[in-house]
């Protein structure tokens, strides 16, 4: 007599079971086009190279022309020199993209009462308004194709606040909300939207913060990494750009179709507190 406890999955139609084999399929982005901002160095450079390595046609955007040239050397990556804070010029960037990676960012460390107004506005334009505009002009193509990936490089500061970073924290929290709205609107069209939230990453952006962090916290520059950057984390090291790129690549792969509207912490347990 057959065992009455037979797994119900054995008789379930494929339409109900989904595609479990997807987790074993390699990530092949041949035929996909990606646009990566802030791609001259750090996270953006690693993501651009990872996507190109998987077969995507990649447009790498940054205002640093020399950095772009160095990053793309030996890779099949198209480079575009542009200032992403020049909002009106964003319409000149490619719009027929299947994968949009919003990564460009800057930092300014200062108490609120001393925070320069023009610097605050620049950070919001670059890190929140610019991603909105790029998403807005890219979605029609993604909808037409029935497939798209919006990947927002957020930060642990999209989930937590720190003193002296009012503009950066504001921009990243806004990006989190924007990403969720895109996920809700894009889901019926095959478009997913996610955030990646690393702690401090070994990038030029982080290195440039050390002097300002030392000044605002009134400690020597030699103590900033240990006493400020690594103090909130259980994993006592900086995140590597290639780690972020590996997660971004997964989010473009065959096992990510239902991964949307969420944020992926790579913060060494910072947000576990």
Automatic annotation (TrEMBL):
Region spans: Disordered: 1-20
InterPro entries, A to Z: 3-OHbutyrate_DH, NAD(P)-bd_dom_sf, Sc_DH/Rdtase_CS, SDR, SDR_fam
Any Pfam family: adh_short
Compositional bias ranges of the Basic and acidic residues kind: 1-12
Recorded family membership: Belongs to the short-chain dehydrogenases/reductases (SDR) family.
Name of the protein in question: 3-hydroxybutyrate dehydrogenase
Organism name: Terrabacter carboxydivorans
Organism ancestry: Bacteria, Bacillati, Actinomycetota, Actinomycetes, Micrococcales
